[in-house]
Amino acid sequence: MKSPPLILIVDDNPTNVEIFQTRLAANNCSIITALDGEAGLRMAREHLPDLILLDIMIPKMDGISVCRRIKSDTSLPFMPIIMVTAKSESKDIVAGLEAGGDEYLTKPVDHRALVSRVKSMLRIKELHDKVHEQSAQLKFQLETATKIQTLFWPKIPELEAGSRIWATSLPAAYVGGDFYDVIVLPDASLLVYVADVSGKGVPAALIMAALSTKIRIEAQQQNEIDALLATINAGTHQLISEEGFFITIVLGRYWPGTGKLQIVLGGHLPPLWQGKSGAHQMVFARGMALGVSPDSRYERNEIRLSPGESILFYSDGIVEARDKNSELFGSERLTNIAANSKGPPFGKAVLESVRLWQEGAPAADDQTILEIWREEKSCPY
Amino acid sequence: MGKRILMIEDHEDNRRILRDLLTSKGYDVIEAENGIEGVSAAETCRPDLILMDIQLPGIDGYEATRRIKANSETRKIPIIAVTSYALSGDDVKAFEAGCDAYVAKPFSPRDVLAKIRDHLVSG
Questions:
Q1: Which terminus of chain B is less hemmed in, N or C, by CB atoms within 10 Å?
Q2: Is residue A1 part of a domain?
Q3: Looking at the structure, do residues A81 and A223 belong to the same domain, yes or no?
Q4: Cβ-Cβ contacts under 8 Å for A303 (sequence gap 6 or more)
Q5: Which residues contact B116 (CB under 8 A, 6 or more apart)?
Q6: Which of B54, B60, B82, B108 is the best residue to mutate to test the A interface, defined by the most A CB atoms within 10 Å of its own CB?
Q7: Is residue A354 part of a domain?
Q8: CB under 8 Å to B113, separation ≥6 — which residues?
Q9: A156 and A279: one domain?
Q10: Do both A265 and A194 map to the same domain?
Q11: DSSP reduced 3-state for A325
């Protein structure tokens, strides 16, 4: 808001204008005036006053139309409008409020009522400006946080024997609670995971940052992934659960040269394996999410990826994506995409299908995919 | 009536995957969520075959198998152990406890069908 507050008076009666002007100037306001609707609209756009006193019966363009135009122009800041009308014309009051007017005064104007309504509207304008400014600051901070979060995404290394990894994470809010990582271990095997912090936004992203660091450190000490996950759960259980969070995770250790892959599940959806015999739901050994119990134990699953096979780690935002009729994407559609694809990779096709599925509906949850596959060897002759 | 299979498995999602496939193949499926319930269901329902998860809350699958095989009424029911990681020696422990076969997680329910058929015939 300007200091002193700037008030635009739109009235075709010079006597009225003068009375308003004198009263309001005495209350420490700057005044500008217009004598018809068109001039009023032009001055509102030009000077962006903190308040408009708008007579309804004015030449060139009536006050209702001026009000409607100002309120429907989203490029303009919030400008409270007090409609001024003859006492007998109650239908004008209704029309003025429906056109977006914020208050009204009836003529002949009671001077005390004029000053108190102007002050009340200026208080609202000031609060509105403050909220607007804070929301802009918050947006800026969230945009910065989103940029910082992308620094956590790992650089995926080149792998031997036709092994490939691709991963991506799309946050539903500015910053997400989903995350993934690819960590090279001393024996050249890779630790890979997709995890999902319950909740979204900044608190979830901070938990994510803490856990991701913890996993990178612990992974250098402990290679066996079932024991690693138990250690991480024991070490972070208090922090996670005290704040009312839990984290689901699918953690794998992959040997690119041979295609050996060990998997542990902590409350997370099992991965989708597109093997030689097709893609279907499988029975995995499962354990509890992180933050549920301090002494959770985990079991290892083991598979071997052959050339031409692929495994997809994904977060629940994929299968729980809803279309505009609220129908879930579901695991069956996911399985079908893998089953119908000619060969790996199919992660990008999954994401594209989910995007089309939820077209017109907002993404309610973060969506993360990490795919490991081995390229089919082709005959060089 | 179809052959009756007792599935002892603590995770609902895994029970659902197995249940869907086995019932679609005409088997009559009964379910237990832990070892104690499983031993009791083996006695009272007399299934034709048992799919026994090893990692169970309370008594584990080895102990449940030992109890079922120690009871002359249920000794002859073939038991397929569902182990998490065969290379760690779970398979040997499963046979020692009295299991007739094992399958390691992860597995596709289709892969276990052939094993179920084999043991239903020989049993």
A1: N
A2: no
A3: no
A4: A261, A263, A273, A311, B106
A5: B5, B22, B27, B49, B51, B80
A6: B108
A7: yes
A8: B21, B25
A9: yes
A10: yes
A11: coil
How many structural domains are present in chain B?
Answer: 1
Are β-strands B79-83 and B49-53 bridged in parallel, bridged antiparallel, or unpaired? parallel
**Whether A260 contacts chain B with CB within 8 A:** no
Task: Evaluate if pTM is beyond 0.80.
Answer: no
* CA nearest to A353, candidates A303, A381, A312: A312
In the sheet with B4-8, reading across from the earlier edge strand, the strands are B28-32, B4-8, B49-53, B79-83, B101-104
Q: With beta carbons under 8 A apart, name residues in chain B contacting A273.
A: 106
Check if A277 contacts B (Cβ < 8 Å): yes
Identify the CATH number of the domain in which residue A13 sits: 3.40.50.2300
Q: Which residue in A153, A139, A122 sits closest to A51, CA to CA?
A: A122
Amino acid at B1: M
- This model of the complex carries an ipTM of 0.86
Interface check for B13 against chain A (CB to CB < 8 A): the answer is yes
Q: Which residue of B has its CA nearest to A280?
A: B108
User: DSSP secondary structure string, A163-182?
Assistant: EEEEEEEE-SSSS-SEEEEE
Q: How many domains does chain A have?
A: 2
Within 8 A of B17 by CB-CB distance, chain A residues are 281-283
CB half-sphere exposure, A135, CA atoms < 13 A: 6
Contact at CB, A282 and B109, closer than 8 angstroms? yes
For residue A176, count CB atoms less than 10 angstroms from its CB and return exposed for 0-12, middle for 13-18, buried for 19 or more.
Answer: buried
Residue B70: give the domain boundaries.
Answer: 4-122
Which tokens belong to A126? 């000031």
A151 lies within 8 A of chain B by CB: no
The rounded distance, in Å, linking the Cα atoms of A30 and A5 is: 6
Q: Number of helices and strands (H, E) in chain B?
A: 5, 5
Domain with A138, as residue range(s), is 6-145
Structure-token pair, residue B108: 């596709």
Residues A55 and A141 in one domain: yes
Q: Please indicate if any CB of chain A lies within 8 Å of the CB of B12.
A: no
Q: How far apart are CA A211 and CA A272, in angstroms?
A: 24
Q: Is residue A286 part of a domain?
A: yes
Give per-residue pLDDT as tens, B67-114.
999 999 999 999 999 987 755 677 888 899 999 999 988 988 888 898
Using one digit for the tens of pLDDT, what is the confidence trace for A193-241?
999 998 767 788 888 888 999 999 999 988 899 999 999 999 888 888 8
Q: Token pair 């607007």 is at which residue?
A: A132
**Chain centroid to CA A228:** 32
Residue positions counted in chain A: 381
A213 SS3 class? helix
CATH classification of the domain holding B111: 3.40.50.2300
